[in-house]
Specification:
By secondary structure, the protein is an alpha/beta fold. The protein is about 40% helix and about 25% strand. The longest helix is centred in the last third of the chain and has 18 residues.
């Protein structure tokens, strides 16, 4: 389960789109409804899933900039984001978001958005981001599908809690931005944006995976086990045994999995 693997991103996309909160989008629509054209910056855009979700739901006259460090993912986005009725242009911007955040021209955009991203970055990065969007008067920010640590398997296994703890440790390891904010990322972002004058609301956007979602369950299980092994390589036997037990439930269509996420919307307070 690599965050930046095209196959993984393709597998998760329909679940992401289904999980996202309509309530989170409502204040964004109110904020940008009179902005024509609408300029949108998608940071950590990956293969363009965020555009594919938002484009049909936002007003016409959209001009998107997809910013990411991975040229292959941006090339994939270019192929799959060409034809949307409301989208006038899509620009690609390859940039090191860890080192070059301050080079992004936030003042050119009405809406800054990201999906499945904020849990990867550090608290220092979050504070710097909040400062940048506020000083450049970005009207609205929408950050979706940030993991919140609420992971629940059915049926339960005695090792679930231990494995979840190891995965949590891995979530806070450096993903290229310094120590990652992990499960606390959405809250740290909310606090940082509120501190500089944004009105912030947060909504739940969980994945609820059933027996028919075996492919995604298996991919998540593989990712959790690999992450646990990176943290505790001496526990390989216990991790492998847990993975085999969990996979057997998936294979026999008895497994259910809930993965919690948060969608955060921040609107600049005109006062």
């Amino acid at each position: 389960m690599g965050e930046f693997d095209t196959a993984w991103l393709t597998l998760r996309e329909p679940y992401d789109h289904h999980a996202r909160s309509d309530e989170a989008l409502a204040p964004v629509l109110r904020s940008v409804n009179n902005d024509t054209p609408l300029h949108i910056l998608d940071i950590g855009a990956g293969g363009g899933s965020n555009l594919r979700y938002l484009a049909p739901r936002l007003p016409a006259g959209q001009h998107w900039t997809l910013a990411d460090s991975d040229p292959d993912l941006l090339a994939h986005a270019q192929k799959t984001c060409r034809e949307f009725a409301h989208v006038d242009t899509v620009a690609l911007h390859q940039v090191d978001l860890a080192a070059d955040l301050t080079t992004l021209p936030f003042s050119d955009y009405t809406l800054v958005t990201a999906s499945a991203f904020i849990d990867l970055v550090s608290e220092v990065w979050i504070d710097a981001f909040a400062h940048q969007v506020r000083t450049q008067n970005v009207s609205a920010c929408l950050f979706t599908l940030s993991v919140d640590g609420d992971i629940s398997w059915t049926p339960a296994d005695p090792s679930d809690s231990e494995m979840a703890g190891l995965f949590s440790q891995h979530m806070h390891s450096d993903k290229g931005f310094g120590p990652a904010s992990g499960y606390q990322g959405w809250q740290k972002l909310a606090d940082a944006l509120e501190a500089v004058g944004y009105r912030v609301t947060v909504h739940d956007s969980p994945w609820r995976l059933q027996k028919e979602d075996a492919a995604l369950q298996s991919a998540l299980l593989d990712g959790y086990a690999k992450a646990a092994l990176e943290i505790a390589p001496d526990r390989i036997a216990d991790i492998d045994a847990w993975k085999l037990r969990r996979q057997s439930h998936i294979d026999t269509s008895t497994s259910q999995l809930s993965v919690g996420h948060k969608d955060l919307v921040a609107i600049l307070d005109p006062s």
